[in-house]
Amino acid sequence: MPGWSSFIGVPRAALHRIAARFVRRIEFTFWCIAPALFLLAPALTGQKNASNQPGVATLHGVVHDHAGKQVANAHVTLDPKDGGASRETSTDAAGSFTFPGVSVGSYTLTATVGALRSPAVPVVVSAPGEQPSVDLTLVASSPERSASAPQGASQAMQFADKPDFAIAAVTDWTAAGGHGSDASLRTSEALTREAVKLPSASSQPAAAGSPGEPNEPKESESALRAAVEQNPGSFAANHSLGTFCLQAGRYEDAIRSFEAAYQADPENYDNEYDLAQALKLAGDASQARDHVRRLLARRPSADLHRMEGELDETLGDSLSAVGAFQQAASEDPSEENYFAWGSELLYHRAVWQAKEVFDEGARLYPQSARMLTARGAALFAGARYDEAALDLCRASDLNPESVEPYLFMGKIEIAAPDPLPCVLAKLKRFASLQPSNAMANYYYALALWKQEGNAAGAPAMQTVKTMLVKAVTLDPQCADGYLQLGNLSAGRRQWEQAIAYYLQAIQANPDLSEAHYRLGVAYERTGENAKAKEQFQLHDAIAKKQAAEIQRQRKAVKQFVVVLPNQTSKPQAR
Questions:
Q1: pLDDT tens digits for 528-541?
Q2: Rounded Cα gap, residues 541 and 54, in angstroms
Q3: Domain carrying residue 41
Q4: Residue 41 has what pLDDT?
Q5: I need a labelling partner for 201 at 20 to 30 A (CA). Which of 95, 385, 515, 525 fits?
Q6: What CA–CA distance (Å, rounded) separates 551 from 561?
Q7: Least confident segment among 123-137, 299-313, 365-379, 455-469
Q8: What is the sign, positive or negative, of the torsion defined by CA atoms of 162, 167, 168, 174?
Q9: Are the C-beta atoms of residues 287 and 272 closer than 8 Å to each other?
């Protein structure tokens, strides 16, 4: 059989030369691409294996538009704060994104789609494993647009004699009314709980009777009781004794006297009003509401509607409550009624509707610091951080001695992704006006630290430390102050000093999970690995327990479902 070279008619020597050149070209190509394949291999396999690597975390979240709708194909960027390389991904059809294989550290997350961009959300990965989900909300990136109301809920509403929205139902917590990181959301929820309890400037500590009643009893208790003993069925004697007990804060005694008067004259309007007040203050919301509704049927008033709303909310009937508050504000557009209505909307996460009510309240009552403070809480809940800060700064200017606006702005400065306007100067004033207030010193220190940055010069950082030391000296239970002192020492690699501060923080508050984690890191740096492991385990256990409690609290507060004008689709929770 002839050889294959003879068969194709090519000399054997020529074929050898061709084959040798072909082999050399293959070898050359291999050695050119081998380094690239070596570098590319981790990237190709990292996506698959990163979530299984020990010591790394998985970040995930959802990108929404201003109306709460998930956004597909949004570009999401994860930026390490230590200046490392950024990572990028895109959202899927459900608006979700995932970053596997994330190391412990501090990051910022942003999302963009065309001209829309989310505020930068700070994320701290403090432990390996699955991290809390992060919500990113897209807004217009231009200054003109960011200063205006967002499209959707708030833009659709033009406040008039009647609001251009309706509360149709309630639903379980959906996070649709919350924006930003989980830390920002927790801050927003805490501010909401505090905002709805803000006292009015005219609030009096003692309970008042019915309108027009004198604040001081005209007779002594012994004389009043003697009158009742002499004539147990007397309306006047029982009502007078009831009024005395109500003003003294002895609500059960007041109820007995008012009920005796009610039996004597069930048609007396003032006595039944006082009985409803005493029942409400004693915690008997059901009987109090029965009397309020009976009074409303006879002689409606804004004051009674507001009381009815408060009792409805106590009894878990938030739909009736918001209607009663709205009716009260419609009949009497007082500061008290506007604040009650807006607070009810804010508490049940109708953020933009609450903001609209507070807008009108602030227009009618421009000297109401609590109206501005509550609107600041609503703006923060809607991720309009700069506007929230400006409202709180204006509130603090109205009454520089009042602590509430300062406390609110201190909390939002810590939680916001970037330093906020006007806050540093106002908190400096707070510390100056109230030098013996531990929180005044604490919040000013943290605002200065944040706005100056870690690269600040020695004088600024010395001021930060001095203010923090002053805070924990004034209040030895200021666990957060010890925690920040520990962080300050850790940043300078003064590990022994950091450990001492973290231990003091834990002693002041054993449930401060971040202090346990930071202490674990400090122990690792000093080679005490067994102690570090113990602190990490404590951190995980406390964080898990606290997360469960937060979920319980969220489920306990129903969320309003808002219907906007000409809405044809299914109403959405706002």
A1: 999 999 999 999 99
A2: 19
A3: 10-51
A4: 42
A5: 385
A6: 20
A7: 123-137
A8: positive
A9: no
